[in-house]
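Changelog note: in this version the structure field was regenerated for every chain. One regenerated record is shown below for reference.
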Amino acid sequence: MPGQGTVEDVVRCLNFAQDVGKQIKAAGYQLEKANMKMLLADLTAAVASAKMELSLLQGVCEARDAELIRLNEMLVFKGNLRRRGDGYYKTLDGRPYGQPYCSYCWEGSQKMLHLHSKILSRDVRVCPGCKNEYQAARTPYLEADGLMV
């Protein structure tokens, strides 16, 4: 039965395999053929179970690595973002520039989604994620003003 992909599950499977190996070693050549086959089947099952637990553990580690990368990127962006009006902007030398990001999405779930102009209305910007609408005057596109971007 598969575990949860933890180190304890892997160690448990390997300890069981070690116990079966000790039984085979202790019996020497005195085991009947049927008993030897049974112990070898137990040993094979324990090793297969340990492999499965290791693959589950690898999946858990990869998921945690991806989460750590996402959190690190979020920290980097957080240090480079600045709120101006109703949007967040990237900064260079402490000054905001570029297209605005949705403040609702950034503050709620740390998603950086650019605001888009609403079709047939230049006065309204819309977030593609949360569908919030912002006044274009409060979320303008900011030129870099000679900054090397």
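Spot check on this record: The mean pLDDT is 84. Helices lie at 7-27, 33-80, 103-109.
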